[in-house]
Design a protein that fits this description.
33% of the residues lie in helices and 16% in strands. The chain has 21 helices and 23 strands. The strands form two sheets. The chain has a 21-stranded mixed beta sheet, with no helix packed on it. A two-stranded parallel ribbon has the order 3-5. Helix 8 runs parallel beside helix 9 and helix 14 runs parallel beside helix 15.
Length: 537
């Protein structure tokens, strides 16, 4: 049989083997334009599509998606991330039979359109609105009243919501399993009490940024995940009341009134896996010692300034995979080595701004599982640490040694020769790094996607040409204050067509150069020259 004579359903099935809906869309469109016999292929394929992700740089665009929507009769899952466009009623009025709708973009939708979506989608179980969608109480009431089977509701920008929304959710959203009401400045303790009493199936509750909140209260709702970050008025009484045996994740980031009393209470949550205490500055080593032998996999103690080695040494968690100790200046190599000895499965390790640390800390925690390491502003760090990482951490993907001014080309070369999976490298203000280090990076790490070489003033056009030749996946590059670079060297990066952000030295002022980037790098989101923003999308 001639390929042109194949039935449309067979051609559609063949297209389904192409990786990703975006590529399938292009193939179906091109086939319809190429041959008259295949003119109906695109329409038939559209009718079979079930999942679509739309963003500014992909196919389909929002306009293409909106035009094709009436023909997409099998569609059940939609994700819209279009920062340059506004999603309006015309999209929501055509959505029907949905199971999952996620809108992470500017959204201007009426109550009528949302009501129509809910009425035509009886199986809708997930509805999420990102930071561009400011819903009000009336809209939330419509959603929970008409979507009887809704299991996941997420509202990221809820500053217009009040306790009235919480009351509606508790009354009509009894099937909810996950609820995110973020930045709801009008939500109080009364509203949250309504929710935890009425939604007994909740396993995830996120009320981050709800500044009026002071307590959760005890209820029959045994959520496994609780997020209270940026709830500045939350106290120990709230945490103690909200802690129970089934809790597996607790986020108290930026809850500055929380003290050791809250942390000590967590011992009853014997299933707790993830704990965030970032900027809980009243927590001390006494509180941290209460976490000893808990089955934690992720712990963030960043900016808990009163923690010292005495507390860190008590963290004998052999299950720990992620540890952040940013800006804890009382921690020394002894504390870090003690953690490393008991936590041999660490994947993420962040000790930025811990200025007392030296190469010994890296030697103490380095293990074959490490993939992300941040040593920013650990100013005593030398090439020895990079050599250690190259020998023990072959799977390293992300390394940040910004402001580690003792790092040189020798350390960079040793690192990249062994860590070939490196995707992000930050070496800003490492003044001893030259073209030699960048050339080695480009040749040995073909997967590199982001490079921060700010103020590496010894770099020249040769480094840019090496990146242009070997680093085709490069998406972010920052070379401000690299005064030896010229327009010619910067232009060589035009071969890196995947670039999203480009930060150039202030002396690169040629408009022709920046215009070339805009034309050839279609995914470009931002260009800066020094402090001047040339492009911002």
């Amino acid at each position: 049989m001639n390929s042109v004579d194949m039935p449309t359903d067979v051609v559609t099935h063949v297209i389904s083997f192409v990786s990703g809906v975006s590529e399938q869309w292009k193939v179906a469109t091109n086939m319809s334009r190429t041959c008259k016999a295949w003119a109906s292929v695109r329409g038939a394929w559209l009718e079979s599509v079930r999942v679509v992700h739309v963003d500014d740089d992909s196919t389909p665009s929002l306009i293409q998606f909106e035009r094709a929507l009436p023909r997409m009769r099998s569609l059940v899952h939609v994700v819209l991330r279009c920062r340059r466009h506004v999603v309006g009623d015309s999209v929501f009025m055509h959505l029907s039979g949905m199971h999952h709708v996620q809108v992470d973009t500017m959204c201007c939708v009426s109550e009528r359109a949302l009501s129509a979506l809910c009425a035509r989608s009886p199986r809708l179980h997930t509805l999420a609105f990102g930071c561009g969608s400011a819903l009000d109480d009336a809209t939330v009431t419509i959603i929970v009243q008409e979507c009887k089977g809704l299991r996941d509701l997420s509202i990221q920008l809820g500053f217009r919501l009040t306790d009235a929304s919480a009351l509606a959710i508790s009354t009509h959203g009894t099937s909810l399993e996950s609820l995110r009401l973020q930045n709801c400045h009008g939500l109080s303790d009364v509203g949250v009490a309504f929710v935890v009493e009425g939604c007994t199936k909740l396993h995830t509750l996120d009320v981050s940024g709800c500044h009026q909140l002071t307590r959760i209260g005890r209820s029959s709702c045994k959520y496994a995940s609780l997020t209270l970050s940026y709830c500045w008025n939350v106290t120990d009484a709230c945490v103690v009341g909200a802690t129970h045996a089934n809790l597996t994740r607790l986020d108290l980031g930026y809850c500055s009134l929380v003290t050791d009393a809250s942390v000590s209470q967590l011992k009853i949550a014997h299933k707790l896996r993830e704990l965030n205490l970032r900027f809980c500055s009243r927590v001390t080593s006494v509180g941290v010692s209460a976490l000893r032998h808990m089955p934690l996999t992720s712990l963030d103690l960043s900016s808990c300034y009163n923690i010292t080695d005495a507390g860190v040494m008590q963290l004998k968690c052999d299950t720990l995979q992620s540890l952040s100790l940013v800006c804890i200046r009382g921690v020394t190599d002894a504390g870090i080595c003690a953690v490393g000895a008991s936590s041999r499965a660490l994947v993420l390790f962040d000790v930025a701004y811990c200025t007392q640390l030296t190469d010994a800390c890296v030697s103490g925690v380095a293990n074959p599982h490490l993939r992300s390491v941040s040593l920013k502003y650990v100013s005593q760090l030398t090439d020895a640490s990079l050599t250690t990482l190259s020998e023990r951490c072959k799977l390293l993907v992300h390394l940040n040694v910004n402001f580690c001014k003792l790092v040189t080309d020798a350390g960079i070369v040793a690192l990249v020769r062994s860590c070939n999976h490196l995707q992000r490298l930050c070496i800003g203000y490492c003044h001893e790094v030259t073209d030699v280090g960048i050339n080695a990076l480009a040749r040995h790490c073909p997967c590199i996607r982001a490079l921060d070489a700010s103020n590496c003033y010894q770099l020249s056009d040769g480094a840019m040409r090496a990146l242009a030749q070997y680093s085709v996946q490069l998406r972010e590059i920052a070379v401000p204050f690299c005064d030896s670079l010229t327009d010619g060297g910067v232009r060589s990066l035009l071969t890196c067509t995947q670039l999203r952000t480009v930060d150039l030295p202030a002396h690169i002022v040629c408009e022709a150069t920046t215009d070339l980037f805009v034309r050839q790098c279609v995914h470009l989101e931002r260009i800066t020259c020094g402090t001047r923003v040339v492009l911002q999308r």
